[in-house]
Amino acid sequence: MGWLSWERFRCNTDCKNDPDNCISDRLFRTMTDLVVSEGYAAVGYEYINIDDCWLEKDRSYSGQLVPDRLRFPYGLHDLSNYVHGKGLKFGIYEDYGNYTCAGYPGVLGYLETDADTFASWNVDYVKLDGCYSHPRDMDRGYPEFGFHLNRTGRPMVYSCSWPVYQIYSGMSPNYSSIVEHCNLWRNFDDIQDSWASLESIIDYYGNNQDNIVPNAGPGHWNDPDMLIIGNFGLSYEQSKTQMALWAILAAPLLMSVDLRTIRPEYKAILQNRKIIAVDQDPLGYQGRRIYKNNGIEIWARPITPVYQNYFSYAVAFLNRRTDGTPSDVAVTLRELGLSNPGGYSVEDLYEDVNYGVLTPLTKIKVKVNPSGEYIFKYKS
Ligand code: GAL
């Protein structure tokens, strides 16, 4: 969990005209401060991650990566110290190719040097993108860079874009190798600031769940990309939907939003402790879409506690319809696959309503708003 610059701040390098929003030392220090002072750290957001566009266009004389001298005047070791001083962790972006996606130097040809550089800056997280490289080389290249990261002896979370580039080029990713070498990986398109983008991601993870879901588990996660809650493109309902679905998907929770201006109701969604607890459930199972018909979807994820072999579940009822009135969804617990004869204690995770203990034959009936959802915890 943490904050990542890309979706909201992109490759804005114009610190002269836009000093508050450009990719710079100042932006990351500001977000670091706000993650702590606005209570995000207290609910689990921990990593402050730089994305693309932090580099000088040329390596140093001795071949080292150099952060942009004007925008990161104190260097990244200093910035990393600052982040650590606030009790948070520090992440960085690079690319397994000749260039990053935005055209800055990539790691190809410098794997050892760059892994050492990151360790010397006390980096805790590396996102390794895949532009300007051949997807066929990734089966060797991503593990090789991971090997060099491990060789430094500094634990660094390793975020890979390996499968998504291979899928785009028509290959089937070798997920068992990806699971072995990466801590998280992107499977699909970049998220953009729109409901259409969010829907396309939800569909991808639902339609491909048989291939994707089994790869998730503690220490290795599918990454449906950043949380865009609090930006321009999602309504309040749609923002609640992203948070609920990301929790069902056991997704990394990386916010990409301006924490200086986010409205309180969006902040409350990002800080919903009950939904975060679902996302971070220790079993680490990723949920599945168990029903889809007529614009209504039901998604379910097995979670703790497990009582006499019966899992608890987080269940989201999603309305993808566009007729402007809520849709009724009525379903028994048994129809959801919940069969503990002792029943389940049922709780609404947004509304703070507890329905008490319901038996498998009880019908739950909800009115789901257009592009909204309900998320319940069924505790075994
Ligand atoms: C994309 C990547 C994005 C972002 C961008 C930076 O390929 O998927 O998440 O990192 O490159 O240029």
UniProtKB/TrEMBL annotation:
PROSITE patterns: ALPHA_GALACTOSIDASE (PS00512)
GO cellular component, one term: membrane
Top EC class of this enzyme: hydrolase
InterPro entries, A to Z: Aldolase_TIM, GH, Glyco_hydro_27, Glyco_hydro_27/36_CS, Glyco_hydro_b, Melibiase/NAGA_C
Primary location class: other
Domain Alpha galactosidase A C-terminal: 284-372
Gene Ontology MF terms in the entry: alpha-galactosidase activity
EC number(s) stated in the UniProt entry for this protein: 3.2.1.-
GO BP terms, alphabetized: glycolipid catabolic process; glycoside catabolic process; oligosaccharide metabolic process
Subcellular location: Lysosome
Assigned keywords, A-Z: Disulfide bond, Glycoprotein, Glycosidase, Hydrolase, Lipid metabolism, Lysosome
Subunit structure: Homodimer.
Family: Belongs to the glycosyl hydrolase 27 family.
Identification of the protein by name: Alpha-galactosidase
Organism field: Zootermopsis nevadensis (Dampwood termite)
